[in-house]
Write a structure and sequence with these properties.
The chain is mostly helical and 485 residues long. The chain has 2 domains: 227 residues, no CATH class; 198 residues, no CATH class. Helices cover 78% and strands 0% of the residues. The protein has 16 helices and no strands. Helix 3 packs parallel to helix 9, helix 4 runs parallel beside helix 8 and helix 14 runs antiparallel to helix 15. The longest helix has 37 residues. The protein is globular, with a radius of gyration of 23 Å. The protein starts with a helix and ends in an 18-residue tail after the last helix.
């Protein structure tokens, strides 16, 4: 093995509990920072530019969420491929994945940026954006589309580093981006000091600048540190797409991206049902979901960490260690998610009072629905962890099917059937039912499903050392010699 390979941070060694926790915490921190950034930006726009501007941003962010949701799956596929390659000590395959990923993500992001910039008015009309918000939305969205290449490429680098066992570096540069965005927002919105007054376009411009600066700084740091996955001048041939890897990124990544779409569309169905009970119920639900966003963060972070960690161990064929990673991940979910849920139950009134007037009807409704639904997120956390493990081998369709069944075939029908009998409580009880159903199905697939036999590529990634004796044997089906660096 080369000296470069020897320097990679390994998730196949050391105590599992400590390694997983240390790896998951920066991922959790990144998620919290992103949510904080969105909240601060919305505050500036909503309070100082008016309701129409805030409506514009809400509509624009819905489009952005769908775009980032799709790329999340592709990035996750890249994370798993790199993790498996490094677990198998196959540095050559890992660099092939990086090279193909760079070309793919840059190409896709440029096409999305051009199409989105030109089609912004059409997209906003298709969403039914109110007329008074469209002027704001077009100005905001077009700059966001200019920022898409930086967003996509940063996301790709972040997921690549996580696949390589490094979650701290992405967190540091995410923090840099968020701080820069928060600082620039008021300066560019209001034209403070030497900065131009751009209004709502200033908020989007601050995002563009922050993302671009963070991306350039991250790339510069990786090359300055001589990161083992960087492509040197002699390795630029890896930028030519390997079609077997490209196929895996698309066909394994899209189902993972669709999971995000299933979750968001299910949420849209539920809010439509909640709206039918009036504005106070909707306000109560909106306040509760603000808290639910933070409750879900530990489970999502652990699920992402488990996926990266399991991928390296799958590549190394350490199946006993994969099983122990699953158990530790589930335990951490109960500890971290359970602690947050316990705090919400303990301070239910005070927490909801942050978003709703004191002693109002909506506050009482929010406390009631929280008491019914919030505990069920521990079940959903188990599902996230199990999904993180099974997708580390390349088994991506069963999690998508399970989510679809629980979120589309359990939640809405249950709420509709019981609505005439128990009213809005039918919606609140549909959350525990859906979460329990998804957990039981995920546990069944983990125990009895064929996920251990799944592959990201057409054949398992083999250790590079085993290929050294027969350097002409391809590792990806493209006939590229697997020579040792």
């Amino acid at each position: 093995m080369s000296s470069i390979a020897a320097r990679q941070p390994l998730l196949t060694e050391g105590p599992i509990a400590r390694t997983l926790l240390v790896f998951a915490l920066p991922i959790l921190g990144s998620t919290v920072l992103q949510s904080l950034n969105g909240s601060v930006n919305a505050m500036w726009i909503g309070k100082f530019l008016g309701e129409a501007a805030l409506t514009a941003v809400s509509n624009a962010n819905l489009i952005l969420f769908l775009l980032l949701g799709a790329v999340f799956g592709l990035s996750m596929a890249c994370t798993i491929l790199i993790g498996q390659s490094l677990g198998a000590r196959n540095m050559l395959e890992a660099k092939r994945v990086v090279g193909t990923g760079v070309t793919f993500f840059v190409s896709v992001s440029v096409l999305v940026a051009i199409a989105g910039y030109c089609g912004t008015p059409l997209l906003l009309r298709a969403l039914g954006t109110p007329a008074d918000a469209q002027v704001f939305a077009v100005a905001y969205m077009r700059i966001i589309f200019i920022a898409v290449p930086s967003m996509y490429f940063y996301n790709f680098l972040m997921m690549t580093l996580r696949g390589a066992g490094d979650s701290r570096t992405p967190f540091v540069f995410m923090a840099m981006s968020v701080v820069l965005d928060i600082v620039l927002n008021p300066l560019l919105i209001f034209g403070i000091g030497p900065f131009p007054k751009l209004g709502i376009a200033g908020s989007a411009t601050s995002t563009l600048i922050a993302q671009s600066v963070a991306l350039v700084a991250l790339l510069s740091t990786l090359y300055a540190r001589k990161h083992f996955l960087r492509l040197t001048r002699s390795e630029l041939a890896f930028l030519k797409p390997d079609f077997t890897i490209l196929r895996a990124l698309v066909f394994k990544g899209l189902p993972m991206g669709l999971q995000m779409i299933v979750i968001s569309t299910s949420a849209m169905i539920m809010i439509h049902m909640v709206n039918s009970y009036g504005s106070k119920t909707t306000a109560a639900y909106g306040a509760a979901t603000q808290l639910w966003t933070y409750v879900q963060m530990p489970a999502m972070a652990i699920g992402a960490a488990v996926s990266s960690m399991a991928a390296q161990n799958v590549g190394a064929k350490l199946w006993d260690r994969v099983s122990r990673i699953t158990k530790v991940g589930v335990l951490y979910n109960f500890l971290l998610s359970g602690a947050l849920i316990g705090l919400i139950y303990l301070f239910n009134h005070a927490a909801l009072n942050l978003f709703l007037p004191n002693d109002g009807e909506a506050l009482a409704l929010a406390q009631h629905l929280n008491s019914i639904a919030v505990w069920s997120f521990m079940f959903f956390g188990v599902t996230f962890v199990l999904f993180g493990v099974v997708r580390s081998t390349g088994a991506v369709m069963p999690p998508l099917v399970i989510l679809f069944i629980s979120m589309w075939l359990f939640r809405p029908p249950f709420a509709l059937l019981l609505a005439p009998h128990i009213g809005a409580d039918s919606i609140w009880w549909s959350f525990p039912l859906g979460s329990l159903a998804s957990m039981l199905m995920a546990m069944g697939y983990y125990k009895w499903g064929g996920w251990r036999r799944a592959h990201m590529l057409s054949s398992p990634i083999e250790p590079q050392e085993e290929k050294a004796a027969t350097p002409q044997a391809p590792t990806t089906g493209q006939g590229v010699p697997a020579s040792v660096e």
